Amino acid sequence: MSDATAFDRTGDARFGDYVLLLKPRVMSLVVFTALVGLLVAPAQVHPFLAFASILFIALGAGASGALNMWYDADIDALMRRTARRPVPQGRIAPDEALALGAGLAGIAVVMLGLAANWVAAGWLAFTIFFYAVVYTIWLKRLTPQNIVIGGAAGAFPPVIGWAAATGGTSLEAWLMFALIFLWTPPHFWSLALFMKEDYHRAGVPMLTVTHGRRATRAHILAYTLLLAAFALGAGFTGLGGPAYWTAAVVLNAWFVLGALRIRRRDEAAAEADGYAAEKRFFRFSLLYLFLHFGALLADALIRAWGAS
Question: Which domain holds residue 109?
């Protein structure tokens, strides 16, 4: 666990520091995928209740981020990518981050239960627990499979959104879960390829540290092929439609080609060009997920328009 005495607060925290504590970039992905889960569900939700549900899901995501930054302050201080976060910089004390994260978690879960239903609230509570405890406290520093198993936390938002709309879950909700779950390893392992030294310095057993970059490249390709097969197969279910099929074919062809290119990369050449291909693959992986879920939403709107 992080040593709370190692980061003395400087007292110069600003509003933006508290926003950063909630990991707004991660929150944007959570909000979007949860919104898609809510909107594609076969249920009519009042716009105000839909807004409230997404707001409290976002608060839950922010709570997870704050709890993660509280516990990981020690290793964040050692990594170039995270060293300027507000807790290792001393602008927010670890105990303050813990209190904010725990408080927001409680508010988010209770308010989602009151605004939507307690099934959605239960899934939100489980997601926060999974990210803060199972992933952050347990898996992240224990196993190179941390991202694979811990990725489930990031895959729950569309399930929560679906549950907020319907009061339960279904095959379609879990298909959206699986899409994010299978996407997570190639997304984060491509980041680890050009941030290996950060993880090594912090003692985080990322796959690049425990097995090396060559093995990580092979794992990225394997998971990308599995993801592509699943993403295309999902088009044959109730989630499929013209927008999704178009996006799935184009995006997965590009993603697989990118993974093949990364797999064949020579380490010396990759280092010489600053891991340019790996960085492009990582950036595209973000677009990949947003466009898949955008296509799901487009097909739902097309179906709704056709039924009207």
Answer: 1-168
